[in-house]
Amino acid sequence: DVLKRRRGGYQQEAAQGAAAQAWNILALDGSNWQQIDLFDFQRDIEGRVVENISKRSGGFLRKLSLRGCLGVGDSALRTFAQNCRNIEVLSLNGCTKITDATCTSLSKFCPKLKHLDLASCTSITNLSLKALSEGCPLLEQLNISWCDQVSKDGIQALVRGCPGLHGLFLKGCTQLEDEALKHVGTHCPELVTLNLQTCSQVTDEGLITVCRGCHRLQSFCVSGCTNITDAMLNALGQNCPHLRILEVARCSQLTDVGFTALARNCHELEKMDLEECVQITDSTLIQLSVHCPRLQVLSLSHCELITDDGIRHLGSGPCAHDRLEVLELDNCPLVTDASLEHLKSCHSLDRIELYDCQQITRAGIKRLRVGAAGSNATHLHLFLYHVLFPKQEWHSGAGGSAAASQCLSGARERGFDPCSACVEFTCSPCVCVEFLPQSKDVRCR
To answer: What is the pTM of this model?
Structure first.
C-alpha cells in the first residue's frame, strides 16, 4: 500500500510538472499574445512590465490596452514600439506620464497603427499629431480627448497625413476653433464619428464645413458647444443623411426650426441627446415621431416646454412600438401622468427617467407598470429612479424616516444598491420599492 501511494504521488507530481511545462511553453510563445488588456492590473503595471511583454510578444502583438496604467512612461513605450512593430490598436488612455516622445516612437517604429487612444494624456501637444501624420498613415481612429494643448496646427498636420480617419475624438480640446474644423471637413471624407464635446470656441462656421465635407458622418457630438445655432442642424440634415447619433446637450440656441430640418432628412437617427435644449417644444417631438422611425434613445431632460401632447405623438409614432428603449424626461415640469399613459404602447421601453417631474404621481407610475405587465411586452423592464414626488405624497416625521429605511432595504434585496447621493435624493421622498424591477442591472448614474 505504501508503495502504491508513493507511486501514485510520483505520477501526480509528474503530471503536474508536465502541465506546468506545457503552460510555460504556451506562455513563452509570442504567437499566443496577439491581444493584451492590462486595465484590471493598472495599479501594478510599471514600465518594466510593458518592456518584458513587448520582448516576449514581439511582432505577434496586434492589440494592447494600457488604459489607466499611470506607471508607464516614454522609455517603456519606446522599447515597446521597437519590439512590437505590427501593433494596430493601442490604448494609452489615462497614461499621464507619456509625452510627445511616445508618439515620436510610434511614428518611427509602428507604421501599421490604426487605432490610438491618448485621452487624458495631457502632456500631448501638436508635435505628437505631426509625428503621427508622418509615420502612421494608416491611422483610422484617434482619441485625444482632454489633450488641451492641441490646436489647429496639430489637427491640420494630422488630417493631411492620415486621410483615412474614420473616428476623431476631440472632447475637451478647448483650444480648437473653426479653423481646425475646416481642415477636418476638407481632408476627412471617410469620417464616421466626430466628438467635439465642450469645444466651446467652435461655431456654425466650422461645423458647417465639417457637414459639407464629411457626408458619411454617423455619430456627431457637439454637447456643450454653446455657440451653435439652427444653421448647423440645417447643414447636418442637408449633408449627412446617414446620421445615427446626435448629441447636442446644453446647446441652448437650437430650436424647433433646426430640428425640423434635421428630422426631415436624417431618417436613420437612433440616439439623440437634447438635454437642456431649452427652446424646443412639442413641435420637435412631432417631427421626430413622423420622420425618425429608428429612434431608440431620446434625452429631453430640462426641456421645460415639452408637454403631454409631444409625448403623445412620440408614443404613437413608428418608433414607439418596437424601437424606443430609453426616454429621459428629468426636470420636464409640464409632463404629467397623461404622458405615462401615452407610453404604454412603447413595448421596447427599458428605462424612463422622471427626476423632478413634479406632476408625476405614484398612481401614474403604478398604472404604467401594470399596463406593461399586462401587455405582450414580456421583456420590458422599466427602471424608475431618482423620482421626486409632490409634497403631499412625501413621508413625514419619524414614520418617513422608517419608511425610507424600509424602502432602501427592499431595494437592495432586489439588486439595487444606491450610492449615498442617490439615497439622499431618492428617499426623502422615497421611491416606493414596488416600482423597482426584479433586476440586478439597475445602477446609480
So the answer is: 0.82
